[in-house]
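Quick one: structure tokens for this chain, please?
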Amino acid sequence: MLLQACVNGARDIAEHPWLSADATVVAADAARAVAAGAAEVHVHPKDAAGRDSLAPDDVARWLRAVREACPDVPVGVTTGAWAEPDVARRLAAIEAWEELPDFASVNWHEAGADDVAAALLRRGVGVEAGLWDAAGFEVWKRSPVRGKCLRVLIELPDEAAETVRDHAEGMVAHVELEEPGVPILLHGEEGSTWPAFDVAVQGGWDSRIGLEDTLLLPDGSTAPGNAALVRAAVGRMRGV
């Protein structure tokens, strides 16, 4: 089971001390998460104000910082539309990247997902197909690049713990029907984070943990950083 650390996300940098606009600060916390057991890092590059950015200079600065802190660890980034709503400008930014991530997540419920994924693949960047809902699944199902994705990222919303298993298993079944054998990374956010993680462990799917998805440890206390979240996740993996 692959465990990915999602170290910052689109959260406001004021939400936690390690959610910084300084790439070196986040990279240092990413290194601690890797030391605790994470095999990959997913990071959201930021501009000087702490907003998610796809700008080539920002992406390069953040990738270099994380790679320096976490040598030989695959590093991925977001291509979320909130960072650049205009599809043409989003594509232009990706084409201008000088420092390339190992992989990037593409949200198939967003406009331009097929084009964004194709642009990444042309540049040799692996694509995580982010599926949040049935609408995104239907678009991905018809995508000409569906079979070229590195993995499918099934992302569950903040929902009641008792609905997580049925939701997750239903999404997985639909994905596997369309693309048998595709690697699946299942995760939740906020209240569904730990229930989804446990479902992933029990189902044998990859997963992720980090401050992007939750600020809380399983006991409800605030996590001091990404490493604490990874240690908790590793403990749950070993328990199963």
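Strands lie at 3-6, 40-43, 75-78, 103-107, 126-131, 151-155, 184-187, 207-209.
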